[in-house]
Amino acid sequence: MILTYFFETYLDLRQHAAHKLPSLPKTLVGVISNEKFEKSRAYSLDKSHFHFVHEFVTILMDSGILFFRVLPWFWKKSADFVVLAGLNADNEILHTLAFLAGVMFWSQITDLPFSLYSTFVIEARHGFNKQTIWLFFRDMFKGICIALVLGPPIVSAIIFIVQKGGPYLAIYLWTFMFILAIVMMTVYPILIAPLFNKFTPLPEGELREKIEKLAASLKFPLKKLFVVDGSTRSSHSNAYMYGFFKNKRIVLYDTLIQQCKNDEEIVAVLAHELGHWKLNHTMYTFIAMQILTLLQFGGYTLVRNSSDLFQSFGFDTQPVLIGLIIFQHTVMPLHHLVSFGLNLLSRSYEFQADAFAKKLGYAAPLRAGLVKLQEENLSAMNTDPWYSAYHYSHPPLVERLAALDEPDKKAD
User: Could you give a GO molecular-function term held by this entry (predicted)?
Assistant: First the structure.
């Protein structure tokens, strides 16, 4: 864990040096204004300084928790909480829920100063934060309430499955998580997301007609087209799709509509997103994640009864949830390798989606839209190749513009 921290900090230092570069990359000169570049550089450096502090505090806390065996101590203390509540501490589900409640409380308290500083200092300083302190805490309260409603039944089900699973435990765990993922992908945008944002149908007009025409030309089963009030919290912009089979929905952030110069740029951005759908990128990624989840549960079943593993972390019993937490810690290096591989895959998908939009005739507006989004979001203009290769799921703007331009050069 500490070696990973040092490696990632080295990459962060390389990226920090890239943020300090006083000029734009050659391919962006004349494309991005100097004013936006300076604002982007200041924003990136602010976030970079904050990131160094946050990561340093995080590694100190995580190392301290492991070294001083805080987890086994708190596991025993959580049994006292169950007894104080007049319940049976020998019931592993009740014991685990009490433990998780304490962990959630601790994480909320320790993360709060960083969230407040990031939102109300850094984001506000650079003109992105639009939410009030009241809205911030209201969102946090809603998130806690959702966790309290959804968490206990999910955790209880996992513990029950592990206790009764037998030789096919990995299959049962994966099946449960697969069903849960499908349910959450269905429920979240309909029931949970509206608790935080207001979704309104995109008004009739030229933009709506163009989007519907594009969707129809690709046989995309568009059922609803929404605008979400992202501007109530931030001036960052986005767009996304969701839904299964013949019930697809597209959501545009109001900030995206405000920032793009014309409808063609918005439609071009959506052509890119529809490219992901048409090329089955979402499906392939979902399948890859399911395979990785199954392998992860398979690995967990191999060590879940290892008394040496539990004892090495200070536990004299073998609770189900603790076993999962310990397993996550031990395979962390593999997680980073897998994440790196998924980022490589994601970047290739982004190039393919850009090429798809270009084939539809949206090369120029997509290029303009990407530049506009880069400017308005003050995204980093200079990127270190090692840092971007390791961290970025999307290629840097320079690479995307070069890929969009390259076929034209060949055609000439």
Answer: metal ion binding
Annotation marks residue 273 as catalytic: yes
Inter-axis angle of helices 2-20 and 332-359, to 10 degrees?
Answer: 40
Task: Please give the C-alpha separations between residue 100 and each of 75, 96, 97, 103, in angstroms, as whole numbers.
Answer: 9, 6, 5, 5
Q: Is 406 annotated as a binding residue?
A: no
What confidence tens digit (pLDDT) does each residue in 37-77 have? 999 999 999 999 999 999 999 999 999 999 999 999 999 99
Burial environment of residue 147 by CB neighbours within 10 A (0 to 12, 13 to 18, 19 or more): middle
Catalytic residue of the set 264, 265, 273, 399? 273
220 Cβ contact partners less than 8 Å away, ≥ 6 residues apart? 214, 248, 274, 277, 278
Measured distance CA(17)–CA(372) in Å, rounded: 25
Backbone angles phi and psi of 234, in degrees to 5:
-155, 155
Does 394 appear as a known binding residue? no
Task: Determine the Cα–Cα distance for residues 305 and 169; give it in Å rounded to an integer.
Answer: 13
Instruction: Write the DSSP string, 340-373.
Output: HHHHHHHHHHHHHHHHHHHHTT-HHHHHHHHHHH
Residues 135, 124: Cα–Cα separation, whole Å: 14
Continuous H helices in 68-91: 70-84
Q: State the DSSP code for 26.
A: G
Residue 111 Cα distances to 103, 114, 140, 184, 286, angstroms: 12, 5, 11, 25, 30
| Distance in angstroms (rounded) separating the CA atoms of residues 358 and 405 | 10
391 is annotated as contributing to ligand binding:
no
Q: Which of 265, 354, 376, 384 is the catalytic position? A: 354
What gap in Å lies between CA 279 and CA 330, rounded to an integer?
A: 36
Q: Is 405 a catalytic residue?
A: no
Which tens digit of pLDDT belongs to each residue from 255-283?
888 888 788 999 999 999 999 999 999 89
Secondary structure of residue 129 in the 3-state scheme? strand
Identify the helix (H) or strand (E) that includes residue 201: strand 199-201
- Cα–Cα distances in Å, from 112 out to 49, 51, 105, 233, 267? 18, 15, 11, 17, 38
Q: Using CA atoms, how far apart are residues 127 and 42, in angstroms rounded to an integer?
A: 12
pLDDT on residue 408: 53
The DSSP 8-state label assigned to residue 203 in this structure reads P
Residue linked to tokens 């019930």:
247
pTM of the model as a whole: 0.88
